Amino acid sequence: MAKCDVCSKSMSFGLKVSHSNRKTNRAWKPNVKRVKVVDNGTVKTAYVCTRCLRSNKVTRAV
User: Fold this and answer.
1) Which residues contact 34 (CB under 8 A, 6 or more apart)?
2) Could you give a single Gene Ontology term from the biological process aspect (predicted)?
3) Which pTM does this prediction carry?
4) What's the rounded Cα separation, in Å, for the pair 2 and 43?
5) Per-residue DSSP letter, 15
6) Nearest to 3 by CA among 43, 25, 31
7) Would you call 49 exposed, middle or buried from its count of C-beta atoms within 10 A (0-12, 13-18, 19+)?
8) Is the Cβ–Cβ distance between 46 and 6 less than 8 Å?
9) Per-domain residue ranges for the chain?
């Protein structure tokens, strides 16, 4: 499950290009961590990308 529960960032697709200019499909996955988050006073686990963790879009439970 490579999707952030906060910002809905998910996989993006593109092409891997070799030195001889051959192109094959590839995917970029977001850096998603499973963390305990305080949501409306209750603690629950959520998948949150590191960008949202770094910018304090969620409050982590202790």
Assistant:
1) 45, 46, 47
2) translation
3) 0.79
4) 21
5) E
6) 31
7) buried
8) yes
9) 1-62
Per-residue confidence (pLDDT) for residue 62, from 0 to 100: 84
Name the 3-class secondary structure at 53.
Answer: helix
pLDDT tens-digit readout, 8-59: 999 999 999 999 999 999 999 999 999 999 999 999 999 999 999 999 999 9
Per CATH, the architecture of 1-62 is what?
Roll (2.30)
**Counting Cβ atoms within 10 Å, is residue 47 exposed (0-12), middle (13-18) or buried (19+)?**
middle
For residue 1, pLDDT beyond 70? no
- For residue 33, the surrounding DSSP H or E stretch is strand 32-39
